């Protein structure tokens, strides 16, 4: 079973999930699953369509916002901001280890004007380091505030 880590009251991050993890996500209050892992990244990963079908069968919405080797882009941050604002319950974001999902969440939170220090503390509490995107977080938070 996947390890769901709490980033905030409404967002969980996880490494690769499988269709059999969907019911546990629903029991945790998840109403939206965000897939940040591109299909085909590893031969043993389930396809996004398989996870999407299991999520929808369980009454959970699904969105794919893949983050590949090229890193993060503004459209991905915008899509995550939109996802964060659209879910009526908890969001479960996943990728291979949960790190890309956490970094994308951090960027989206900063774009929404949240304090980067608070974001970093929440991520660290879940076992993740947002250091790789901290300069971008600071820039996004500065734009949101000004």
Q: What is the CATH homology-level superfamily?
A: Protein tyrosine phosphatase superfamily
Structural class: alpha/beta
Query: What's the shape?
Result: globular
Number of beta strands? 5
- Strand proportion, as a percent range, falls in 5-15%
Main sheet specs: 5 strands, mixed
Task: Please tell me the overall pLDDT.
Answer: 95
Amino- and carboxy-terminal Cα gap = 43 Å
* SSE ordering: EEHEHEHEHHH
What does this structure look like?
It is a single chain. The protein is α/β, with parallel strands linked by helices and 146 residues long. It has one domain: Protein-Tyrosine Phosphatase, Chain A. It has helices at 22-27, 48-57, 74-86, 99-111, 116-125, 134-145, and strands at residues 5-6, 11-14, 30-35, 61-64, 90-94. The protein has a 5-stranded mixed β-sheet, sandwiched between helices. The longest helix is centred in the middle third of the chain and has 13 residues, at 74-86. The model has no long low-confidence stretch (mean pLDDT 95).
């Amino acid at each position: 079973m996947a390890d769901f880590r709490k980033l905030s009251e409404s967002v969980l991050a996880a490494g690769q999930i499988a269709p059999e993890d969907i019911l546990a996500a629903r029991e945790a209050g998840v109403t939206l699953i965000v897939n940040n892992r591109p299909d085909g990244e590893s031969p043993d990963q389930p396809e996004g369509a398989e996870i999407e079908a299991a999520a929808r069968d369980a009454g959970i919405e699904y969105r794919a916002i893949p983050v590949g080797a090229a890193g993060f882009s503004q459209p991905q941050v915008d899509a995550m901001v939109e996802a964060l604002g659209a879910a009526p319950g908890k969001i479960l974001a996943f990728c291979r280890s949960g790190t890309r999902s956490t970094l994308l969440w951090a960027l989206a939170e900063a774009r929404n004007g949240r304090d980067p220090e608070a974001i970093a503390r929440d991520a660290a509490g879940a076992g993740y380091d947002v250091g790789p995107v901290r300069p971008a977080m600071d820039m996004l938070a500065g734009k949101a505030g000004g």
